[in-house]
Design a protein that fits this description.
The structure is a homodimer of 196-residue chains. The first copy, chain A, is an alpha+beta fold and 196 residues long. Chain A is built from 6 helices and 8 strands. Chain A is 41% helix and 21% strand. At the A-B interface, strand 5 and helix 3 of A face strand 7 and helix 2 of B. Chain A binds a DNA duplex (30 and 30 nucleotides) through helix 6.
Chain lengths: 196, 196
DNA sequence: CGACTCCTTGACAGCGTTCAACAGTAGTGG
DNA sequence: CCACTACTGTTGAACGCTGTCAAGGAGTCG
């Protein structure tokens, strides 16, 4: 187990986190725009962001892209119930993550740990709630409403005093909201001219 | 799994489900277009469809509606991790459901049942997967693609030999796909003229 | 039969996309 | 230090897909 972890290890000290007390987490760094894991790839690790930002997405054969969620420092992603990841994950900027072998954290889970299972449940329930809200946004809101909702979400999650800097570019925002980059840009101009 | 085991001891079929073996389920009937539970309402029961169909949805203050999922005979819905339902559920047609008090089924769950927790986890994971696929559909597919995908999904789930009858009307389909009823109707015409 | 609901179809408008030009910034190398 | 390039974001103009508005057909029910 440890040898597999050290394959990704940077040689830095290992970390312990509240979830899965017996777990050893190691730190790893992904540079901007690199893939962390791919859709349908075996889910061997779970990840927690230390710094940076990550997007998870699905692709259509012709290149159309839908971003499912953004993950920011503190967020955990890559947790699955089945064997495979359901979305691709990519670093939006240079990103440091803590990663741990899934069997190590939830190993007991697949056997008999109630605690591990409930942690997974909590994380999936949170993802599901986010996805369901996002369905309403994608299906039934206008471009300006979408961008406004996005800004509100980011404002809340980046818990910023006054101003904040978005780690993702226009293309990411567009693919998150089901718009084009031009529409995002226009919506931002409109919101700005209305005072925001 | 979630198979229904039917016994014909009394003439009427009696249902037992693998999930929560010690549970008592009672049958209940909802007539067409009535609410089964509301968004934010306390989640006291979980439901399994015997016959009929159910939609779950979110509403915007101005009446815009997004349907999150359709549930068909055999499907379980209303399962939550937290205390409250995150979407409203309504009967699409006259619908018979089996319902069971949540504490009864997952009572052990909130205390120490690994089995109950893992069943909830499995159901939520399935919902999440469906929602994530639906995000891609809502955000990045054209009206004809949406309707085609809807038909394929229903064809699969209604497991019908040859033809099948949709329990939901055009408005439900439209609110599921993020379209208007007219667009759904047009897309159906186009698909039909292309042979389907 | 009339009233109602649901669905389809047509005409047109509008929102968001597409295509295009341009500004701002950063990186590179002369 | 400045040209050159590459990339990102903004803005404009025209197009087109989907929404809106309207009419009419098909089916149901009293």
């Amino acid at each position: 187990m440890l040898d597999i972890i050290s394959r990704h290890s940077t040689g830095r000290p290992e970390y312990r986190v509240a979830i899965g007390e017996s777990a050893f987490w190691s730190e790893f760094k992904y540079i901007k725009d690199t893939e962390i894991f791919a859709e349908n790839e075996t889910a061997d690790y779970i990840y927690q962001i230390v710094s940076g930002a990550v997007r998870t997405l699905k692709l259509l054969p012709d290149g159309r892209r839908q971003i499912g969620a953004f993950y920011l420092p503190g967020d955990i992603f890559g947790v699955e119930n089945g064997d495979a990841h359901r979305l691709t994950a990519e670093a939006i900027v240079d990103t440091k993550v803590l990663l741990a072998k899934r069997t190590r954290i939830f190993g007991e889970f697949s056997k008999e740990s109630l605690r591990g299972t409930r942690e997974v449940l909590k994380l999936l329930a949170r993802s599901l709630q986010h996805a369901e809200n996002h369905l309403l946004l994608l299906g039934r809101q206008t471009s300006v409403e979408k961008v406004a909702a996005f800004l509100i979400e980011m404002d809340r999650r980046l818990q910023s005093p006054g101003a904040f800097i978005l780690p993702m570019n226009r293309r990411d925002i567009a693919d998150y909201l089901g718009l084009t980059i031009e529409s995002v840009s226009r919506a931002l101009s409109i919101l700005q001219s209305e005072g925001l």
